[in-house]
C-alpha cells in the first residue's frame, strides 16, 4: 500500500515584514518612488519556516510532531491542509484531509446550533448527506440538546466549544490533522474527545498527525513522531525514541532561548531560560529541585520606568499565577537580567509555559511573548506517583481530621 | 472506495479550477445560505427590505428628476425607467461591494481551512442576486400596474441584462476582493468608486441624451450602461443601441478575465496575508 502522506524536500519561506502583513498602498507607492531615486535595492528579508522536510506516513499511523515554538510544526500542518502553499518541494496526500487546526471555524453567532452544525460541518469538509446522517449523534455528543435551536450568541463559551468539538469529533476523513486543539475546553470533555478520536482511528485505521507541546499526550496517542527544530527535520522515528531525544536535547543546555535577534522595539526580551538551584538550564525538573527563570532584557532607546512581568501557565489548564516588578529606567544600549524563583513545592507534575511582557508606565505593551519558555515538572519520586491522571494545579498538604 | 489524491506543490500556472469548484458546490451553497439567512435575521421587515430600498429610491428619483428637473426618459414612463435602472444597478453595486469585502470578512475561515477561495466572492454575489430577484418580481408586477407593457423580447433581454451585470460585477468584485486582502486602501476607495460608476451609468438619465458621441461611447465603456440598455429594451419600442452594447460586453469580458486571473494568481497567499 502506498503511503498516506509522502513529503519530499518540502520548504516554506516567509518574507519578513516589520509592519502588519497587509500593506498600505501608500507605502508601496512611496517605496517604489524611493527606489527610482536610489539605486540601492532593499535586501530581501526572508526566513525559512521549513526546509528540506522529507518523510512518509503509512496509512493508519498516528504521528506526533514535536518541537519548540517556532520549529515549524504548525506551518507543516498548514501546508498539508493546503491553507498555505509550500515554496519548494511537494507533498502527496492520499485520502481526504480533515484538519482540526481550529475547531468551530465559521461558527456564526446569529445562526442556531443546528444551523451551525451544517455550516461548520460543510466548512470542515462533510457532505450534507453525511451531516444529516450524523446529526443526532453530533447533537447528543455535544450535550447541548436543549439549546440546539437557539442562536449561538446565547450560548456560553463552553457550550459553543462543546458543539464545535462535537462536529469535529464526527469528521470522518482518512487523514486527520490536529494542532493542540485539546488545550482548550474542560478536562472531562477533552478526555471524551481524545477517547472518541482514538476509538475511530483504531477502528477505521485513520491516519493522524498530532501537533502538541504535551509530550504525555503524544506519547499516549501516537506510534511515531517527528522532531523539528528551527524548520529542519531532526529525527523521525518511534515515539519513545523521539520524546527521549527531545527531552535530552533540551536537557543538555541548549534550552536557553534567544527570543529576538534584531528588533525595532525600544526595549525587548532577548532571552529566557529555566534554571535549577545551581543556575544550570533545564527542561525537566524533578522533585526537590529549585526552579528559577532568568529573563534578559535589552534596551534600545527606552528612557522611562517600565514594568516587567510574567504569567505562569499550567498545560492544559491555563494561567496559574502572575508576577511583576516595576523597574527604574536603565541606560540605553544596556542589557539587564532578572531571576525569579518559582514556588516548586506548590506546583504539580505537569507541563508549564511562561508568557512574558514589558509594559510602560501607562500599562501599554512594549514587548510581549506568549509561551516564551516551557518546562516540565517530572512525576517520578513525587507524592503523586501512582495517583491517577490529574493532579490538579496546586500541591498542598491538607489536614484530615476525624470528627 | 476511490481515494482522493492531492499533490501539494508551490503555486504555478493559471487555471480557473472549475472542476474543484464543482467538488465544493455544497460549501458554496452553505456560504450563500448563511449570508442570506444572517442578513435578514433580527430584522422586523425581513426580506421586505430588498423591496423597500429600490422602491423608495424610485419615488425620490421620480420626484427629483421627473417632476422637478424634468429629465426626458423617452417612451418609458420615468418611474419604471428609473426602477429598471436601479434594480440592475443595485445588483451590480451590491455584488461588487459584497464580493470586495468578502475575503476580509471571512479571513478567519481562510486562515484555517482550505477550499477554493473563489467560492467566497461568488457566494457573496449570489446574496445580491437573491435580493435582485425579489425586486425583479415586484418590477414585473409593477409594470402593468403603471401601464408600462413589455414585449416578448423580455425573455432574451432581461436575462441578457442581468447576466451582463453579473459578469461585470464578478470581474470587478474578484479583483477588489483580492486587492483588499493585500491593500486595505480599497475598502475606503470602493464606496467612492461605486458612486462615480453610478453617475456614469444610465440609471437616472438615458445615455442617448448625451449629445456628444465621444462622451457617449466613453461612458459606454462602463458595462452597466450596456446592461441597463439591454434590460430596458423590452420596455421601449426603440431597439437598443448595439454599439453601446458591444462596447459594454467587451469591457465586461475584459474586466472579468482580468479580475478572475488576478484573483487566481494571488489566492494561494491569502492565508499568509489576511
Q: How much helix is in the residues of chain B?
A: 55-70%
List the helices and strands of chain A in order: EHEEHEEHHHEHEHEEHEEEEEEEEE
How many helices of chain A does DSSP assign?
8
Report on the biggest sheet of chain B. Answer: none
Question: Can you describe this structure in just a few lines?
Answer:
Chain A has 403 residues and is α/β, with parallel strands linked by helices. Helices cover 24% and strands 33% of the residues of chain A.
Explain what you see:
The complex is a heterodimer of chains A (about 400) and B (about 270). By secondary structure, chain A is an alpha/beta fold. Chain A has a domain of about 120 residues: abc- transporter (atp binding component) like domain (Coagulation Factor XIII, Chain A, domain 1). In chain A, strand 6, helix 6 and strand 7 form a beta-alpha-beta unit. The mean pLDDT of chain A is about 80. The longest helix of chain B is centred in the middle third of the chain and has 29 residues. With about 270 residues, chain B is mainly alpha-helical. The mean pLDDT of chain B is about 90. The chains are: A alpha/beta (about 400), B mainly alpha (about 270). At the A-B interface, helix 1, helix 2, strand 4 and helix 3 of A face strand 1, helix 2, helix 5 and helix 12 of B. Strand 4 of chain A pairs antiparallel with strand 1 of chain B.
List key phrases describing it.
heterodimer; A: 403 residues; alpha/beta; Coagulation Factor XIII, Chain A, domain 1; six-stranded mixed sheet; five-stranded mixed sheet; 8 helices; 18 strands; 24% helix; B: 274 residues; mainly alpha; 12 helices
Note the topology:
The complex is a heterodimer of chains A (403) and B (274).
Chain A: E1 5-15, H1 25-37, E2 46-57, E3 62-66, H2 73-80, E4 88-94, E5 97-100, H3 113-123, H4 128-142, H5 157-169, E6 175-179, H6 187-204, E7 207-211, H7 215-221, E8 224-229, E9 232-238, H8 239-251, E10 257-258, E11 267-275, E12 284-285, E13 291-299, E14 306-315, E15 318-327, E16 335-342, E17 351-359, E18 365-377
Chain B: E1 5-8, H1 18-23, H2 25-39, H3 49-68, H4 78-105, H5 107-110, H6 119-145, H7 154-182, H8 185-199, H9 213-219, H10 223-232, H11 242-266, H12 270-273
Helix pairs in contact in B: 2-6, 3-4, 4-6, 4-7, 4-8, 4-10, 6-7, 7-10, 7-11, 10-11
Amino acid at each position: 500500500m502506498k503511503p498516506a502522506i509522502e513529503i519530499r524536500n518540502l520548504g516554506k519561506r516567509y518574507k519578513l515584514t516589520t509592519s502588519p502583513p497587509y500593506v498600505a498602498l501608500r507605502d508601496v507607492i512611496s517605496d517604489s518612488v524611493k527606489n527610482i531615486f536610489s539605486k540601492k535595492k532593499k535586501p530581501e528579508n526572508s526566513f525559512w519556516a521549513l526546509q528540506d522536510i522529507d518523510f512518509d506516513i503509512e496509512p493508519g499511523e498516528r504521528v506526533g510532531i514535536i518541537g519548540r515554538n517556532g520549529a515549524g510544526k504548525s506551518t507543516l500542518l498548514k501546508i498539508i491542509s493546503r491553507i498555505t502553499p509550500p515554496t519548494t518541494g511537494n507533498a502527496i496526500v492520499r485520502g481526504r484531509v480533515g484538519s482540526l487546526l481550529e475547531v468551530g471555524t465559521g461558527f456564526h453567532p446569529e445562526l442556531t446550533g443546528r444551523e451551525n452544525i451544517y455550516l461548520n460541518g460543510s466548512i470542515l469538509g462533510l457532505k450534507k448527506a453525511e451531516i444529516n446522517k450524523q446529526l443526532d449523534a453530533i447533537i447528543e455528543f455535544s450535550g447541548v440538546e436543549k439549546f440546539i435551536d437557539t442562536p449561538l450568541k446565547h450560548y456560553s463559551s463552553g457550550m459553543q466549544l462543546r458543539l464545535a468539538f462535537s462536529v469535529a469529533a464526527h469528521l470522518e476523513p482518512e487523514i486527520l490533522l490536529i494542532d493542540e486543539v485539546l488545550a482548550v475546553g474542560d478536562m472531562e470533555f477533552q478526555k471524551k474527545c481524545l477517547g472518541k478520536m482514538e476509538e475511530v482511528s483504531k477502528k477505521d485505521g485513520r491516519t493522524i498527525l498530532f501537533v502538541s507541546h504535551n509530550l504525555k499526550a503524544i506519547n499516549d496517542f501516537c506510534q511515531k513522531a517527528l522532531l523539528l527544530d528551527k524548520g529542519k527535520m531532526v529525527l523521525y522515528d518511534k515515539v519513545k525514541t523521539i520524546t527521549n531525544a527531545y527531552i535530552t536535547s533540551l536537557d543538555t543546555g541548549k534550552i536557553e532561548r534567544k527570543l529576538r535577534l534584531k528588533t525595532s522595539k525600544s526595549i525587548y526580551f532577548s532571552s529566557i531560560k529555566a534554571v535549577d538551584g545551581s543556575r544550570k538550564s533545564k527542561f525537566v525538573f524533578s522533585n526537590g529541585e529549585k526552579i528559577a527563570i532568568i529573563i534578559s532584557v535589552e534596551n534600545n532607546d527606552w528612557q522611562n520606568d517600565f514594568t516587567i512581568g510574567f504569567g505562569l501557565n499550567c498545560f492544559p489548564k491555563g494561567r496559574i499565577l502572575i508576577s511583576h516588578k516595576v523597574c527604574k529606567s536603565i541606560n540605553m544600549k544596556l542589557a539587564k537580567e532578572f531571576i525569579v524563583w518559582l514556588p516548586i513545592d506548590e506546583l504539580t507534575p505537569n507541563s508549564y509555559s511562561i508568557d512574558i511582557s514589558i509594559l510602560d508606565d501607562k500599562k501599554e505593551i512594549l514587548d510581549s511573548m506568549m509561551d516564551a519558555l516551557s518546562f516540565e515538572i517530572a512525576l517520578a519520586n513525587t507524592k503523586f506517583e501512582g495517583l491517577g491522571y490529574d493532579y490538579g494545579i496546586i500541591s498542598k498538604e491538607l489536614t484530615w481530621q476525624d470528627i | 472506495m476511490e481515494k482522493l489524491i492531492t499533490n501539494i506543490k508551490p503555486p504555478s500556472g493559471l487555471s480557473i479550477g472549475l472542476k474543484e469548484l464543482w467538488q465544493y458546490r455544497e460549501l458554496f451553497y452553505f456560504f450563500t445560505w448563511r449570508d442570506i439567512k444572517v442578513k435578514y435575521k433580527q430584522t422586523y421587515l425581513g426580506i421586505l427590505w430588498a423591496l423597500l430600498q429600490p422602491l423608495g429610491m424610485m419615488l425620490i428619483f421620480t420626484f427629483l428628476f421627473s417632476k422637478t428637473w424634468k429629465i426626458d426618459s423617452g417612451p418609458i414612463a420615468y418611474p419604471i425607467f428609473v426602477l429598471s435602472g436601479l434594480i440592475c444597478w443595485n445588483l451590480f453595486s451590491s455584488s461588487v461591494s459584497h464580493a470586495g469585502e468578502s475575503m476580509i470578512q471571512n479571513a478567519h475561515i481562510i486562515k484555517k481551512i482550505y477550499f477554493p477561495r473563489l467560492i467566497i466572492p461568488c457566494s457573496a454575489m449570489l446574496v445580491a442576486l437573491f435580493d435582485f430577484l425579489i425586486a425583479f418580481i415586484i418590477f414585473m408586477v409593477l409594470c402593468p400596474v403603471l401601464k408600462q407593457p413589455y414585449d416578448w423580447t423580455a425573455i432574451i433581454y432581461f436575462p441578457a441584462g442581468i447576466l451582463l451585470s453579473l459578469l461585470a460585477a464578478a470581474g470587478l468584485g474578484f479583483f477588489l476582493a483580492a486587492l483588499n486582502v493585500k491593500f486595505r486602501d480599497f475598502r475606503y476607495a470602493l464606496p467612492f468608486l461605486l458612486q462615480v460608476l453610478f453617475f456614469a451609468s444610465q440609471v437616472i438619465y438615458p445615455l442617448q441624451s448625451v449629445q456628444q458621441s465621444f462622451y457617449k461611447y466613453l461612458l459606454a465603456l462602463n458595462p452597466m450602461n450596456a446592461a441597463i440598455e439591454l434590460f430596458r429594451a423590452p420596455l421601449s419600442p426603440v431597439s437598443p443601441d448595439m454599439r453601446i452594447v458591444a462596447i459594454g460586453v467587451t469591457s465586461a469580458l475584459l474586466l472579468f478575465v482580468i479580475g478572475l486571473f488576478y484573483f487566481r494568481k494571488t489566492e494561494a497567499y491569502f492565508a499568509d496575508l489576511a
